[in-house]
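Hi team,

Below is the intake form for OmpW family outer membrane protein from Vreelandella alkaliphila. Please confirm the fields before the structure is written into the shared record.

FORM ID: S-0412
PROTEIN: OmpW family outer membrane protein
ORGANISM: Vreelandella alkaliphila
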Amino acid sequence: MRHNSLSTLLTTGLAAATLMASGQVLAYGAGDFFTRVGVAKVEPKSDNGSLAGGAFTVDVQDKTDFAFTLGYRFHDKMGIELLAALPFEHDIALNGDNLASTKHLPPTLTLQYYPLGGTDARVQPYVGAGINYTFFSDEELAIGELELDDSWGAAAQVGIDLLIDENWALNAAAWYIDIDTDATINGAAAGTVEIDPLVVMAGLSYRF
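The structure came back. Fields below:
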């Protein structure tokens, strides 16, 4: 599922680039602030571990919602970007039954490299690496009380801007985020939930 989403993202981006009219567009460069806004799908990995000594297998469900980023280019080829979003609410299946849920906020800060930065190329790919902090809230469990600890983890990113004019671009991006949270059920330590999602986002980019 992850490979299909990433392949679709890149294929769509390249196809859109070939349809854009030829001509030069001023690319993003040093000193630019930008925002990216769109719809993001959070796809946790397929095996999220087990709880209560193996009594419950865990399956964290996918979720799609609004997301946005804020970024700054401190060099033609280098920048930083913060991924933010509305709280994502995930159903959690235990032994195949949806018995739990949680909300989380996953702000993710990445240092980015733009190989074509500072040029007038309409297609501007980039890669990034950084750190994530995930805040969990509103945990619910049908068979008791659930608590999930906040999480720190590494993050990696790949994306592409398809420039429309000096301010606007189409954008597609994907992040891999390391999210592991310790779970407590009815006050007792129950194990670790390994979410480790792929986040795929598509939308618009605007340069200020």
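SUMMARY LINE: The longest helix spans residues 2-19.

Thanks, M.
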